[in-house]
Amino acid sequence: MKVKKLDINGFLGKQDWGSSNFIAPCIFHAFADVEVDQEHRRLSLIFMCVPVSPGNSRLIWTFPRNFGVWIDKIVPRWIFHIGQNLILDSDLYLLHVEERKIMEIGATNWQKACFVPTKSDALVVGFRRWFNKYAGGEIDWKGKYSGALPPSPPREQLMDRYWSHVVNCKSCNTAHKGLKALEVILQIMSVVLIGIVAVTKQNMISMVVKTTMVSTAIVCFAASKWLAHFIYKNFHYHDYNHAF
């Protein structure tokens, strides 16, 4: 991987499987070269990171492709978003900490805060070169902000997924409401089944039916607990154990 043609408009990157293009100031486009795939299948990543205030950015990304598009009509978008959010969230805390380290040491000395020895780090180095050369190593907030970073929030707030994504995503928001409703239904079914068994006279239902109802109630309760954990981990907060 290497960086080519770095100027005020951004830079080009080249790797074995394709190319990438940083379009200044906040768009990254990676794509597979046509000659790499004889079937002319194309897959791209378009990633926009727009600074909105010191320490905060709005991320907009998409993965356009010209093959396998049928799967989007079968698999709900929120299923894909769960996997994509894992990738973003896994680096979020690291980036948060690194931003503060670079701020402390100075943008021009960023190499002292980051260890980037491999060829795969070429794009990071390329962006830092562009940022220091053409942006002076800092974002021009036009007087709206001083540039000072806000205090670090708790991890639960920093990596909160509900308010940063779910409420703004129609697919994830709909899935969240549906799964929460299913969780409540399972809990109600569990209570109702146990209640029926408790109030029904012994000779009115057979032992087999009673055992089946109790077993179903237990399964419903266990399923509701598992679903609650799934909802929290995928739609609210997913922690990571990073080594520093």
Automatic annotation (TrEMBL):
<keyword id="KW-0560">Oxidoreductase</keyword>
<keyword id="KW-1133">Transmembrane helix</keyword>
<keyword id="KW-0812">Transmembrane</keyword>
<keyword id="KW-0472">Membrane</keyword>
<dbReference type="GO" id="GO:0005737">
    <property type="term" value="C:cytoplasm"/>
</dbReference>
<dbReference type="Pfam" id="PF08417">
    <property type="entry name" value="PaO"/>
</dbReference>
<feature type="domain" description="Pheophorbide a oxygenase">
    <location>
        <begin position="22"/>
        <end position="106"/>
    </location>
</feature>
<feature type="transmembrane region" description="Helical">
    <location>
        <begin position="181"/>
        <end position="200"/>
    </location>
</feature>
<protein>
    <recommendedName>
        <fullName>Pheophorbide a oxygenase domain-containing protein</fullName>
    </recommendedName>
</protein>
<dbReference type="InterPro" id="IPR013626">
    <property type="entry name" value="PaO"/>
</dbReference>
<keyword id="KW-0809">Transit peptide</keyword>
<dbReference type="GO" id="GO:0010277">
    <property type="term" value="F:chlorophyllide a oxygenase activity"/>
</dbReference>
<feature type="transmembrane region" description="Helical">
    <location>
        <begin position="212"/>
        <end position="232"/>
    </location>
</feature>
<dbReference type="GO" id="GO:0016020">
    <property type="term" value="C:membrane"/>
</dbReference>
<dbReference type="InterPro" id="IPR050584">
    <property type="entry name" value="Cholesterol_7-desaturase"/>
</dbReference>
